[in-house]
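Intended use. Records like the one below are meant for learning the mapping from a protein sequence to its folded structure. Do not use them to infer anything beyond what is encoded.
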Amino acid sequence: YFYILDAGAADVLIKQTDGSELKVLEYKPGGSFGELALLHGEPRLASVRATEDCATWALDRDTFRKIMMSTGKQDMNERTQFLSKVSLLDELTLFERFKIAEAMEVRNFADGESIVAEGDPGSEFFIIQTGNCNCYKKTLKF
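Structure written out for the chain above:
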């Protein structure tokens, strides 16, 4: 099933080689999980455990796949493939890359348009998918 958390909270746990569980994420209402196993037909890579009483909505595999096929499964596969080529993300698991791909949004910039400016708060992370950019640093003259 694909689950959407309607109420409550839950932790995402990944089993370590020593048998312990590592908390990697926490879901609040609106969070969703289970898509990776349904999309790729693989065993689930993480456990999700309620940390308070929860209410969820669940979609079976067939319904989920039909929806995804009509609304961007190819796009998610392309994003996941793209992220697998970003060396900064090499240490991430497939699950972690998928969650990033799920949250990513494409932004287009025209030639010469500023993407970020020196001094701006660092609240976003950009990966250049296509094209080129130049980076500039202000320097002080003595």
